Amino acid sequence: MALTAVIAVGGNALIKDGRHTSFEDQYEAIVATSAHIVELISQGWRVVLVHGNGPQVGFSLQRSELARAVVEPVPMDAAVADTQGTMGYSFQQAIGNLLRQRQMDCGVATVLTQVEVDAHDAAFQNPTKPVGFFLDEATAQQRREQDGWQVMEDAGRGWRRVVASPKPLQILELTLIGQLVHSGACVVCAGGGGVPVVRTPEGYRGVAAVIDKDLTSSLLARQLRADLLLISTGVEKVCLHFGTPKQQELSRLTASQARQHLLEGHFKVGSMKPKIDAGLAFVEKSGGRIVITDAPNISRAVAGETGTEILPD
Q: Is 12 a catalytic residue?
C-alpha cells in the first residue's frame, strides 16, 4: 500500500530575491521545487502539497492598492484564494510536466481550500501578522479610519496592515482531497494555510486573516492519516543558537526535547517556531513521522540521510 506524505513548502522559498519577483521567476523556482517532489512520487509516495503565499498575497494586495482609484480593492480572503489559484496552477503544470517526462501521468489536481477558524479566536483581539506593503504613518492612520484596518509600525521600516492568525479548526474540502489522494493523484491544496472562513447562521464567510500554513499542513496530515509530514524550509537542518558561533545542527530529537528547546526560546515566532509546533502536533496526535529540511534535500531527508526528524517520546 502506498504511503502518503503531506509536504509544506514556504512561499518565501519561491521568491529568490527582490529582483526576481515576476511570474516567470516564481515559476522557475516552482519547477525546481517540483523536481524534488516528483522524485518522491517516483519512489511510490502519494503526495499532498501545501504551499505558503506570504509574499504572493502581498503582491496581490499591492496591485489592488495601486488600482483602487479604478476598481474595488480585493478583500483579504479573496487575495488568499487568488494566490491559491495562480500558485496551484503553476505547481500543477510543473509537476504534471515533470511526471509526463518520466511517463508517470498519475494526475495532478489543485483544490481551492477553505479552512474554518473560530470567530472568537483570541488572535482576532490582537492581530499581529503583517501583510502587504509598507505605508507612511499618515496613510496608515487614514486606512485605519476609513477601512477599519489594524496597523502597526514594523521595525522602523514603515507602517503595515496587520491581521489575525487564528488556529485552523476544520478543512472544508477534506473529503474531496482524501478521495483524490486515494485515487492516486498528487493534490495541491490549502495554499497559504487555506482561505480563512468562519461559520455563521447563513453559512461560511471569509474573514481578513492569515492561517499559518504549517499548522494547516499538520491538521491536514493528521486528518488524512498521512505517514509523513515534511516541512520544507530554508535550512537543511533545524539548529540551536542559529546564526551564532555556537550554532548546533539537530538531526533527531524527541518531542520532549523539542518542547524544551521551544521553552528555552531557540525557535522564533517568525521562523522555526510554527514548524516545530506543527511537527509536535502531528507526532503527538498521530504517531506519524515529521521531517524538516530544505527543498533540495527532500529525498535524502525522507531516506533518513539528512534533515531534522522529531520522534515520539
A: yes
Q: Is the pLDDT of residue 156 over 80?
A: no
> Which residue do the cell numbers 518542547 mark?
259
239 in a structural domain: no
* Mean of the per-residue pLDDT values of the chain: 90
Containing structural domain, residue 84: 30-126+164-234+267-294
Q: Is 213 an annotated catalytic residue?
A: yes
Give the helix ranges, DSSP H, for the chain.
Answer: 23-42, 54-66, 76-101, 137-147, 174-182, 213-223, 255-263, 273-286, 298-302
| Per-residue pLDDT tens over the stretch 109-130 | 999 999 999 999 999 998 888 8
Identified catalytic residue from 54, 58, 96, 213: 213
Between 33-37, 103-107, 193-197, 274-278, the lowest mean confidence (pLDDT) is in 103-107
Nearest by Cα to 222 from 269, 168, 152: 168
Query: Catalytic residue among 10, 11, 279, 288, which?
Result: 11
**Is 19 a domain residue?**
no
Identified catalytic residue from 10, 52, 53, 129: 129
**Residues whose CB is less than 8 angstroms from the CB of residue 8 and which lie 6 or more positions away in sequence, other chains included:** 50, 51, 52, 213, 214, 217, 229, 230, 231, 232, 278
Selecting among 132, 275, 288, 307, the annotated active-site residue is: 275
Reported as a single tens digit per residue, the pLDDT across 43-96 is 999 999 999 887 888 788 878 878 878 888 888 899 999 999 999 999 999 999
Q: Which of 12, 16, 107, 158 is catalytic?
A: 12
129 is catalytic: yes
CATH number for the domain harbouring residue 198: 3.40.1160.10
For residue range 190-210, what is the model confidence (pLDDT) as tens digits? 999 999 999 999 999 999 999
Residue 194 lies in a domain: yes
- Residue 131: which of 184, 65, 191, 189 has the closest Cα? 65
